[in-house]
Write a structure and sequence with these properties.
The protein has 426 residues and is α/β, with parallel strands linked by helices. It has 16 helices and twelve strands. The protein has two domains: 192 residues, MOFRL domain (glycerate kinase, domain 1); 227 residues, Glycerate kinase, MOFRL-like N-terminal domain (Rossmann fold, 3-Layer(aba) Sandwich), CATH 3.40.50.10180. Helix 3 links the parallel strand 1 and strand 2. The chain is globular, with a radius of gyration of 22 Å.
C-alpha cells in the first residue's frame, strides 16, 4: 500500500469511528426510561394501577414506570420480544414472545392481560405502555382464526413490500385487540397510554396496530390493500376484513413520548461535535431499501464532485422505515439491504461512510442492527468470493456484509423508533 492509499484508509477508519460514535448517541437518546419517568413524574397516580406494556421497549418502559409510580402499580403484564426482558419487576408478569411473527406465547400473554382488564371498573386505571413490535406481540384471535392462519397472513405481508400502514390496516381486522378493540374491552376503566412511535408521522392508529386508539381506516381500504398485494386468505379472513373497527373511544388519554425525531436530532448534535455540518434530509424515508441506498450514495458522489447539498465535511441524516420486496432466498433486513446497495454505488469513493441502523438493535430476522459501509466494502466482499450485486439480487445482505466486516451489531437496545441512516463525507 502506498503512502496515499494508507492515508486514505486511515481517514476512512476515522470516519467509521465517527459513525459508531453517532450511532451510540442515537441509541442512548431514544432509550425509553427517561421519557417515561419524565412524563409520570408530572402525574399523581391513582391508588390502583394495572400496567400493560407491549412491544420491543416494553420491559424498559415498565421498569421506568415502576420506578416512578411504585406500589400504585398493583398488577400488570409485560409482553416483549425474546431476549428483551431484563429480569423480574414487582407485581408484574413478564412474558417474551415471537416477533415479527406471532407465536403461542404472545397469545397466552395477551389472554393474561385481558383477564386483568376484564375485572376493572370505572375507578381503575390502565397504564398502557406501547412501543414498536406490539402488533406481533399483543394478539387475541377471533373465532374461527388459528395461529397458523395469522402467521401465514403476516408472512405474506412481510414479504410483499407493503409499508407498515398497509400491514397494520390488515392486521387490525383479524384481531380482538387491535384497532381500538383493546380499549373497548377495558372500558369502563380509564386508559393512560404512553407511546413510543416507530411509525412514520407518528400515526397512533398504526403504532402497534392501535389497540387503544380509534381506527382511521375503513373496511373497504383493508379489502383494497388485500387485493392489491394478492393476499391468499380464507373465507373467514375475508369476512373479518369487511368488519368495521371502532371509530371513537371515550376512555383513553394518549401521549407520544418518543419518536424518530429524537433519533435524528441526537445524530445531528453528535455529528456536529465530530466536526461535520449536519443536514437532516428527512424523517419520513419510506421507499425500497435498495433505492434509498442508491440515492444516498448518489448524494455522496455529488458532495464529492460539486459540494452540494453541503460541502464536506458533512453529515446527511435520515429517519424512517424503508421496505424490502423479497424476491430472493437470502438473509438480511432493510437496513442491511440499504447499506449493501449503497456500498455498490460507493465503490472506489474515498472518505465516505454510510451506516443504517434499526434503533431496536435488530434488523429483519437477524442478530444485526444494520450495516456500515464505505468505498472499499465491495472489494472486501470480492476478496472473500462474494459478488455484491448477486447478493443484492438474492436479498442476501447479511452474509455479504458479514464477510466484509460491515455488519452493525448492537444487541437488543430496548428502544424502537424507526431506523436512522447517516452518510458521512470527510
Amino acid at each position: 500500500m502506498d503512502q496515499g492509499s494508507a492515508s486514505s484508509a486511515a481517514l476512512t477508519q476515522s470516519v467509521r469511528s465517527d459513525a459508531h460514535f453517532i450511532i451510540d448517541r442515537i441509541i442512548k437518546a431514544v432509550l425509553p426510561e427517561p421519557a417515561v419517568r419524565a412524563f409520570l413524574r408530572r402525574r399523581t397516580p391513582p391508588p390502583r394501577v394495572t400496567l400493560i406494556a407491549i412491544g420491543k421497549a416494553a420491559w424498559r418502559m415498565a421498569s421506568a414506570a415502576v420506578m416512578e409510580w411504585g406500589d400504585a402499580i398493583t398488577q400488570g403484564v409485560v409482553i416483549t420480544k425474546y431476549h428483551h426482558a431484563l429480569g423480574e419487576l414487582p407485581n408484574l408478569e413478564i412474558y417474551e414472545a415471537g416477533h415479527p411473527l406471532l407465536d403461542a406465547n404472545g397469545l397466552h400473554a395477551t389472554q393474561r392481560a385481558l383477564a386483568m382488564v376484564d375485572e376493572l371498573g370505572a375507578d381503575d386505571m390502565v397504564l398502557f405502555l406501547v412501543s414498536g413490535g406490539g402488533s406481533a406481540l399483543f394478539e387475541a384471535l377471533p373465532e374461527g382464526v388459528t395461529l397458523d392462519d395469522l402467521q401465514a397472513v403476516n408472512q405474506q405481508l412481510l414479504r410483499s413490500g407493503a409499508d407498515i400502514v398497509v400491514i397494520n390496516t390488515i392486521r387490525k381486522r383479524l384481531s380482538l385487540v387491535k384497532g381500538g378493540r383493546f380499549a373497548q374491552r377495558a372500558a369502563p376503566a380509564r386508559i393512560l397510554a404512553l407511546v413510543i412511535s416507530d411509525v412514520l408521522g407518528d400515526r397512533l392508529d398504526t403504532i402497534a396496530s392501535g389497540p387503544a386508539y380509534p381506527d382511521a381506516m375503513r373496511a373497504e381500504t383493508a379489502l383494497e390493500f388485500a387485493r392489491r398485494y394478492s393476499l391468499r386468505l380464507s373465507p373467514t379472513l375475508w369476512r373479518l376484513l369487511e368488519e368495521e373497527t371502532p371509530k371513537t373511544l371515550h376512555n383513553v388519554e394518549t401521549h407520544v413520548i418518543g419518536s424518530v425525531h429524537t433519533a435524528v436530532d441526537a445524530a445531528a448534535q453528535a455529528a456536529q461535535e465530530r466536526g461535520y455540518t449536519p443536514l437532516i434530509l428527512t424523517t419520513l424515508l419510506n421507499c425500497e431499501a435498495r433505492e434509498a441506498g442508491r440515492f444516498l450514495a448518489s448524494i455522496a458522489r455529488t458532495v464529492r464532485s460539486v459540494g452540494q447539498p453541503l460541502p464536506a465535511p458533512c453529515a446527511i441524516l435520515c429517519g424512517g422505515e424503508t421496505v424490502v420486496t423479497v424476491t430472493g432466498g437470502g438473509k438480511g433486513g432493510r437496513n442491511q439491504e440499504l447499506a449493501l446497495a449503497a456500498a455498490i454505488e460507493l465503490a472506489g469513493v474515498a472518505d465516505v461512510v454510510l451506516a443504517s441502523v434499526g434503533t431496536d438493535g435488530t434488523d429483519g430476522p437477524t442478530d444485526a442492527a444494520g450495516g456500515i459501509v464505505d468505498g472499499d466494502t465491495t472489494a472486501r466482499m470480492a476478496a472473500q468470493g462474494i459478488d455484491a450485486q448477486a447478493a443484492l439480487a438474492q436479498n442476501d445482505a447479511y452474509p455479504a456484509l458479514a464477510a466484509s466486516g460491515d455488519l452493525l451489531i448492537t444487541g437488543p437496545t430496548g428502544a424502537n423508533v424507526n431506523d436512522a441512516t447517516l452518510l458521512l463525507v470527510r
